[in-house]
Design a protein that fits this description.
About 35% of the residues lie in helices and about 25% in strands. The chain is of the alpha+beta class and about 400 residues long. The strands form 3 sheets. Strands 1, 2, 3, 4, 5, 6, 14, 15 and 16 form a 9-stranded mixed sheet that branches. The chain is globular and about 80 Å long. It binds (2S)-amino(hydroxy)ethanoic acid and manganese (II) ion (2 copies). The site of one manganese (II) ion (MN) has 6 residues, from loops.
Length: about 400
């Protein structure tokens, strides 16, 4: 019988092994259905089959390993997270939750439970390749709309899958819940010196692309007062975004990407396209912050004789995690002698999409240094062992053998 600390070491080793499958040698970058995903699928399939799972890949590239329950068990518990990464990522965001699910199955040592366990590796959560997040979990929730399917069909075919079969990916049957283990990606658990946290709710998020349209012109001959400089306008707006978030408690607002054109040092920029990411646990607060931020863009461009457009990419309401699963997780975490800490997730997660179809809950693991979406992202072996012990207790009590 594998002990949780042995299993924890193997979880971390496997995360590091899978991190080598990347689009960018020297960095960890693995986006939706990129070619390194084939290698991730192959190795995870090997590990899952060795653990007694039957493995399939659905039409959007979600990898699903099913560990059967006891005779006649028709219910399923889903445990998973995402396989894709942001550019230049760390080795644990997403993949850790898939490997903790696999380790929990391996720690059963072949013993069937009162429900089947489905370990899910979602093909896309970050929204890097197509700008739209949660493609994998949206396929299970049945919310991949025609426009999105149109946009991603080529990538699906290039990967060797059939976009016409995406509707078959929708979750069906008696699912008792979805459990996601994930690094916190922030400083809270480390400050409290706690290994684990239970997610109360996941903050909502609004994502936009805001384009400033000015006039490209010569950097040496155009007088300052006659310029319609798109970068200067975007820069003024970006500082407004930061100030708005600083002045509204709990709002996180980020401009993470800025594309400019024509992008030459001796040309005044004609256009600047900025991404906007605004989050808050309360939807009304988030939405009014977005309104103020977009209104500020309007005021800036009129003062500078430019124009602007704002395209909404994502409007994801905040999602409360399932109260029954949360209290079962509270019990499991305290049963292993760990203080229970409920918290809000500022990061978005697949659990907020699955929650549309079944009870969903999340367990956070401490992020050393509060670092994530960065190569310095890490997780402590003892905390992984604690997560496995709590997960094992949850399975024993909730999915009784
Ligand atoms: O951006 C997020 O919240 C998550 O890491 N995908
Ligand atoms: Mn992430
Ligand atoms: Mn993640």
């Amino acid at each position: 019988m594998t002990t949780y600390s042995t299993a924890a070491r193997r979880v971390i080793d496997r995360c590091l092994e899978l991190a080598q499958f990347t689009e960018e040698p020297g960095h960890i970058t693995r986006t939706f259905l990129s070619s390194p995903m084939h290698q991730v699928h192959a190795l995870l399939t090997q590990w899952m089959e060795a653990a007694g799972c039957s493995v399939r890949i659905d039409a959007v590239g979600n990898l699903i390993g099913c560990y059967p329950g006891s005779e006649g068990a028709w219910r399923r518990l889903l445990i998973g997270s995402h396989l894709d990464t942001v550019p230049h990522a760390g080795a644990f965001d997403g993949i850790l939750g898939v490997l903790i699910g696999l380790a929990l199955v391996e720690c059963l040592g072949g013993k069937p439970l009162g429900a089947a366990i489905e370990i899910i590796g979602f093909s896309e959560e970050e929204g890097v390749r197509f700008g739209t997040p949660f493609i994998g979990s949206r396929a299970l929730a049945g919310t991949v709309d025609c426009d999105l399917l149109q946009q991603i069909s080529g990538a699906i075919r290039d990967y060797g899958l059939d976009p016409l079969r995406v509707p078959e990916a929708v979750l069906h049957g008696d699912v008792i819940g979805y459990l996601e283990f994930h690094i916190e990606q922030g400083p809270v658990l480390e400050i409290l010196n706690l290994p684990l946290g239970i997610v109360d709710a996941i903050a909502g998020q609004s994502r936009y692309v805001v384009e400033f349209q000015g006039k490209a012109n010569h950097a040496g001959t155009t007088p300052m007062h006659l310029r319609r400089d798109a970068i200067a306008a975007a820069a003024e707006w970006i500082l407004t975004v930061e100030e708005e978030a600083r002045n509204t408690p709990g709002v996180m607002a980020t401009v993470g990407k800025l594309d400019v054109a024509p992008a030459a040092s001796n040309i005044i920029a004609g256009t600047a396209r900025a991404t906007l990411d605004v989050r808050h646990a309360a939807d009304a607060v988030r939405r009014s912050a977005v309104e103020r931020i977009l209104a500020a863009a309007g005021q800036i461009v009129s003062r500078r004789f430019l124009t602007y457009s704002a395209e909404q990419i994502l409007e994801q309401p905040a999602v409360e995690m399932d109260s029954c699963l949360k209290s079962l997780l509270d019990r499991a975490v305290s049963a292993i002698g760990c203080p229970v800490h409920r918290m809000i997730s500022g990061a978005g997660h697949d659990a907020m999409i699955l929650a549309q179809r079944c009870p969903a809950a999340m367990v956070f693991l401490r992020s050393p240094g509060g670092v994530s979406h960065h190569p310095g992202e890490n997780v402590l072996e003892d905390d992984v062992a604690a997560a496995l012990a709590a997960g094992g207790n949850f399975l024993e009590n909730y999915v009784y053998g």
